[in-house]
Design goal:
The chain has 189 residues and is mainly beta. It has two domains: 90 residues, Lipocalin; 85 residues, Lipocalin. The chain is 5% helix and 58% strand. It is built from one helix and 16 strands. It has an eight-stranded antiparallel β-sheet with strand order 2-1-8-7-6-5-4-3. Strand 13 and strand 14 form a beta hairpin. The protein is elongated, with a radius of gyration of 25 Å. The N and C termini lie far apart (51 Å).
Amino acid sequence: MIGWLLGLAAALLPGQYTGQTATGQALALHLRADGTVDHAGTTWRWAAEGDGLVLTAGAERRRWAVAVDAAGQVVLTGPPFGRATLRLMALDAPAAPPPERPAGWQGTWAHRASGGTLLLTLTADGRAALGPAGEPPARATWRAADGALVLAVDGGPPVRYMARRDGADLVLRGGELPGAVVFEPVSGP
């Protein structure tokens, strides 16, 4: 029983599988580390579920029973092909963890100074905008790393700013800033 379970777990590792159906039709599946697989002209989400491989795309769901035969091949059983035997050809590297984007940093922030107001917007999907109020902002991307806000403006090199929350405010220090710069919330947290 334990050997079968270990075989099943190994059968569902991200990687490239090739083989054929019982009728001799070629079948290739690339179970990507990001949880997607292309099958029948559609990109699906894949997951191990009990003794099966489940594919979902929108409201559509397909489930194949998974077994490992004595030769170490993965055997999938279910519609539309009935039964298919696949060999693992190459393992995929594990997916990189998603970039950290603290919810407490997300939103639109304003730094008010004698020269005007500088707006900084940080979205949950990693997009950012930076610029003086009333002017078109520069587009940027952002992420957090070791307590720092890493900001790349207009595809330029990433710049690290030490970042922390001080009450409702977001305080940045470093990069090209002359000292600590306080941003007040306009929207968001």
